[in-house]
Structures are given as C-alpha cells and as structure tokens.
Amino acid sequence: MLHKLLATVKKEVLLLLRDKVGLSILFIMPMVLIFVMTLVQDSAFKTMNEKGIPVVFIDNDKDSLGIQIERGLKANDLCYLSDSIDGKPASVETAQKAVQEGKFLVGIVIPKGATEAIRKNVTELVNQTLNGEDSAKHKSAGKTDSVEITILIDPVAKKSFLISMTSNLREFISEVKTKIMFQTFSEQVAEIIPDKQNAPTNSYQKSQIIKYKELYASKSEDKIVPNAVQHNVPAWTIFAMFFIAIPLSSSILKEKNEGSVFRLHTMPTPYLLLVNGKIIVYVIVCLIQFVLMLSVGQIFLPMLGLPALVLGNSIAGIMLLTGATAFAATGYGVMVGTLASTEHQAAIMGSLSILLLSALGGIWVPSYVMPEVMRNISAWSPLNWSLEGFYKLFLRGGHVSDVLGETLKLLLFFLATMTVTSIANRKKRTV
To answer: DSSP assignment, residue 304?
Structure first.
C-alpha cells in the first residue's frame, strides 16, 4: 500500500515538474497579486491613517467657534486641514468647486457671526430662566437665531470614510458649542449674582470631563496596526491556495481522458488512494506558496516602503492553520475534478466557485461591512474560516487554542470533499 502511494506521489511530482510554465504560474501569480493589491490598497490606508482625509476649511466666523474648530481639526489625525486652494484663501464658491473636482473629500464652512449667535441664544435663555419667563411663549414671540455649519461632500468619496469624518466632526462641533454656551452662561450668571465669591467659575474650559483612550483589543504586547499588508498577505495567499483547484482538477480530468485512470481502476486499489498522491503533492505546493507569500510580506514589501508583515505570537498556530487550509484547498480541487466531465467544465466550475467563495469569504471585501444576510452566508465559506484564523494570529495575538475552531472546520471540509469525491466516483463507474 505504501509502495503504491509513493509511486503515485513520484508520478505527480514528475508531471508537475514537466509543466514548468504552469508550475511557475502557481508561485509567481500569487506573489504578483499580493504586490499589486497591497500597493493599491496601501494608498487608501495611508490617506486615512497617515495624512488624513483632505478637508478644506472656511472660517467666516473669526471667533471662538471657528478658531476652536480649526485648532481641533488640525490636531486631529483623521483629517488633513487646509484653508487655501491653489495658494489662495478659500471661499465658499472655490471650496465647493474644489470638492466637486475631487481636490478635497470634505469642505467645512463656518458662517459669519456663529459664535455671537450662540452667545445671544444663551443670554436670552439665562434671562428667561432667571426672570421666570415661559420659554414656549418666548419662542412664539421671536425666532431664535440658529447656527448652520455647512459640510460639503464629494459624492465620489467612500461612504464609510465620510461617515467616520462627519460623525467625528459633529461630535467635535457639539463639544465646542457646549464650551461656548457654558462660558456665556457663567458670565451671565456672574453678572446677576451679587456675591462674586459664590458665582460660578468657568472651569469647564480647563477640565475635561470625559477622556478617550484607544486600545487595540489584542493579546499581543506589540501594537499591531491594521494595514494593507496585514490584510492582503493572508487574504490573497488563501485565495492562491484555493485557486490550485483549477490545475488539480484539470490534472484529474486529463488522466481520465488519456485512459490512465481506467487502467488504474483495473488494479485492486481504491480511488481515494490513487488521488492521495495528488493530494500530498499539491498540499506541499500550497505550503510552498504560503512560505513564499510570508517572505513577500516580511522581506520584499518593506523594500517598497510598505510595513512588514507581523506574524503574531504563535508559529505553531500558523503551521496548524496553514496545513488545514492546504488540505481543504486540495480536497476541493479533487472534488471538482471528480464531479466535472471535461477539463473545460472543471476550469469553469473551479474558477467561478473559487471567485464566489472568496468574495463571500471576505477576501475582496471585509465580511463586517456586508449586510447581515451576506454575513450569515459568509460564515459558511472555507476561505472565511481560514482568513478569520489568520486575523486572530496576525492581528489579535492569538495562539493555537484560538484557531482550533477554524482548523477543525477546514479539516471537516476536507473530509466532506473526500466523501463527495468517493460517492461521485463510485456512481460514475457504475454508469
């Protein structure tokens, strides 16, 4: 039995080495894919994380509200603030045109007299409160001045970027407005209360009631920042490992068409033993692919100025998950090759199904941005299991115990494909 297995392994190695062009594609294509996708997506990550979203700022107020908003936005890493366009001071008209042309993603316009309007409203509110006037009657008697801050938005910009930007902006503007209101309120009350010692002090400006501290929920002591490298290297490596289903299924169909499978069937050898040689060889190919992809992430991408891939805390976890992924990928390829009747069928079935599983698995678009229905479907993709496992290892500082669930799912998927393969082969032989 062992002799037969070794013979099939030797046969597959010789066939694989004979096709040098196909073999080189198996290794070079994923490397090129990672290079291209990482370089493309890295610019988006840098726009958000390093330089920030480009924002044009027009302060027509020239008072506390406009000054504090500008100061706060300049100190915020989320955006890159500019008050000029092409070397000239920005206006509402030029800002709107610049946003339309895509020079800025967001434009912010603070209206003239905004701070004074807030102070006036607070003064009237204090007078109403202390004089016991009915606010409802006062509102009906005269209209309160409102402050309208205009936010210009580039329609081409990604909605997720804009939601993050505008929500932070609204939060900050609300904080600044509250400070101005509290300051004005304190000044008004201090003028009315004769006892200056008991008058309220403007301590709000000097104190921060709520502070924020951002921490990555990771077991790793190192601060692992999500970037294009940390996402693309494992994602597209998994894609390449599963894409091996196409040459593997074509190899099976080629042997069927040449009649070698029929001759092997005449021997007292189970079909699964015959394909075990293919499984062993192609699992090794998948492992070599993975090692090459890690070298790309750790050695070659940093040469281009990109961050180096961080492997996390568990090499054992990486080896375990990679092995399970390799078996799942090769098992799927064997199943496709057994179910298909021609090489053309195998190529179409393999390529379309892998593209579909990768799209559902979060390789192209992260699963957390998908609708709930699609997220539930994504949970059944073997590529999603592998990707989530690598996220746990590379980003969350996980260990072997943290990826046992994903590993088990991938191995069960391999067993399921082998079961389907055996049943399908048995039916085809009886037909």
So the answer is: T
Domain check: are 262 and 398 in the same one?
Answer: yes
Length of the chain: 431
- Residues 384, 314 share a domain: yes
Return the CATH number at 90: 3.40.190
Spatial distance between the Cα atoms of 338 and 325, rounded to a whole number of angstroms? 20
The domain containing residue 184 runs over which residues? 52-192
8 Å CB contact between 361 and 382: yes
Alpha carbons within 13 A on the beta-carbon side of 375 = 8
**What pLDDT does 386 receive?**
93
Q: How far apart are CA 300 and CA 172, in angstroms?
A: 41
Q: What is the DSSP letter of 61?
A: S
Contact 42, 227 (CB under 8 A): yes
* Residues 244-300 pLDDT 10s: 888 888 888 877 776 555 555 555 556 666 678 888 888 998 999 899 888 888 888
Phi, psi of 81 (to 5 degrees): -95, 135
Q: Are residues 40 and 67 in the same domain?
A: no
Domain closes at, from 177, 192, 207 = 192
Contact residues for 100 (Cβ-Cβ < 8 A; gap 6+): 154
Joined tokens for residue 26 = 């198996």
The answer to whether the CB of 336 falls within 8 A of the CB of 350 is yes
Same domain, 380 and 233: yes
- Tell me if 165 sits within 8 A of 106, measured CB to CB: yes
Q: pLDDT under 50 in the chain at which residues?
A: 47-48, 50, 139-142, 203-212, 214-215, 431
Interacting residues of 414 by C-beta distance below 8 A, sequence separation 6+: 324, 327, 328, 330, 331
pTM of the model: 0.64
Look-up of token digits 């190192």: 222
Tokens encoding 25 = 């594609």
